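[agent] plan:
  1. take the single chain provided in the ticket
  2. run structure prediction with default settings
  3. attach structure tokens to the ticket
  4. add a short note for the reviewer (M.T.)
[agent] executing step 1
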Amino acid sequence: MFKLKSQIGTIFEAHFASPNSNLRLPLFLFFWGIYYLGMAQTDIKTHGFFYKISLSSTLTTNDEYTLSSDDDTGSFIIPNAIFINNSIGYQFDQRTSIDLNIEYDRYTRQALNFLPIHLGFNYNILDFDDMVFIRGGYGKLLKVGNSFEKGNMYKFGVGYRAFDENFKNSWLIGLDFSRKRFGYRLTEKISSVSIFMEFMLF
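[agent] step 2 finished; step 3 output follows
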């Protein structure tokens, strides 16, 4: 960047030395634009705090589904659970980040409610214009009322991250596997594979 600045300075001296030059303003704008673009390319954010909001759903088969033309039982594949997650995290570099998550999970078929709070770790395994990542997390299930279960949980996932034109905010889509243990002495458990869609502000 310092080399670029010195080159621009040399061009300025060559073209603006004459007081009669009519090219002062156009050349100034042209070379300042080149300099600004060069600075912008090196100003891509690679670390700092971020916020994510996520919506996930698990899918299951509809046991009441039939192939009849007058079937009114719905589609063959239906949602089994809905997860809504909020994350605050820190990105260390272009590959690694951690986040703290609080989530609401509702399993409609089992009529179960969970409020997980968990720490997550994310790692980008492919780093091009967009990214492919893996992630994992472990945390607790908070009992905030009689309708919520107490226990613990862990999760693993893989996904794809697509950036906006400024390489800051991004959309994430992928699959998560999670297992929750709850009930008396954590003897009950529920496992699920969910499809997630997230938006990240960075």
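[agent] step 4 note for reviewer: The longest strand covers residues 77-91.
[agent] ticket updated
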